[in-house]
Each structure stands twice: as C-alpha cells, then as structure tokens.
C-alpha cells in the first residue's frame, strides 16, 4: 500500500478506525529522508494498516496539535486511540516490531485505560 498524505482535513477520518501509522517529516530533514524508504517498504508489506505522512512545513497546525518538536516523529493509532508516539528515525525491524505489538493489543483494556485517562484530565482541568 502506498502512503497517504495526511492533512488537517482528512486527519479525523483517517485515524478513527483500524491501525494508522503517521510519519511527521519535513523535506529539509536528513533523518526523515533516511526513514522515508523504510516507512514505505513496511507500508507495502502491511495492507491491513494505513501509513500516513504529515509534511510538518505544510501542516504546521496539525504538527502543533501533536506537540511535534522533533522530526521524524512516529505516531500510531488503533481504533481511534493513540497508542504509540516517538521521535526519531527507526530501523525497519523496530518499525515492524511496533506494528506487530500494536496488532496484539487487547483493545478492550486499552479503551478502558484511555477512557480513565480522559476522565482524569477532564477532572483536573475543572479544578
């Protein structure tokens, strides 16, 4: 599967279902250029996941929503829940391992924990 260009416009629809890997990158970034072919190769082996790329120069607001301060940054969603985020270029075996671990997640447990975290944040914000 080829990678998808993610923008603020298609973001919510893209991450709502299944497994989605997002690569935040920029044209001027050397590590991003080295990671790009790895991301592409892994995408071709896993048709059961969406591989999206966010150009941080063109999509500054989207990168800011994620708090991206270093690139490349990888963010992984499963069923609308962010389950992994890490800056830095990864070697291909590490990217494959992350993808396999995401596939193995007990999503009932993840949803329960995520909802508890959201409630804690909301309570803390209320004050």
UniProtKB/TrEMBL annotation:
Residues 1-104 form the Thioredoxin domain. Gene3D superfamilies: Glutaredoxin (3.40.30.10). The keyword Disulfide bond applies. The keyword Nuclease does not apply. Keywords: Disulfide bond. InterPro entries: Thioredoxin (IPR005746), Thioredoxin-like_sf (IPR036249), Thioredoxin_CS (IPR017937), Thioredoxin_domain (IPR013766). It comes from the Bacteria. PROSITE patterns: THIOREDOXIN_1, THIOREDOXIN_2. This is Thioredoxin. It comes from Spongisporangium articulatum.
């Amino acid at each position: 599967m080829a990678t998808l260009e993610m923008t603020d416009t298609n973001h919510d629809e893209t991450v709502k279902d299944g497994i989605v890997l997002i690569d935040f990158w920029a044209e001027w970034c050397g590590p991003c250029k080295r990671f790009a072919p790895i991301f592409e190769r892994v995408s071709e082996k896993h048709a059961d996941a969406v591989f999206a790329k966010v150009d941080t120069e063109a999509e500054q607001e989207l990168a800011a929503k994620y708090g991206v301060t270093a690139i490349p940054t990888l963010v992984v969603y499963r069923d609308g829940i962010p389950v992994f985020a890490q800056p830095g270029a990864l070697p291909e075996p590490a990217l494959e391992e992350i993808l396999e671990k995401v596939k193995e997640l007990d999503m009932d447990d993840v949803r329960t924990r995520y909802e508890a975290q959201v409630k804690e944040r909301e309570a803390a914000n209320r004050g």
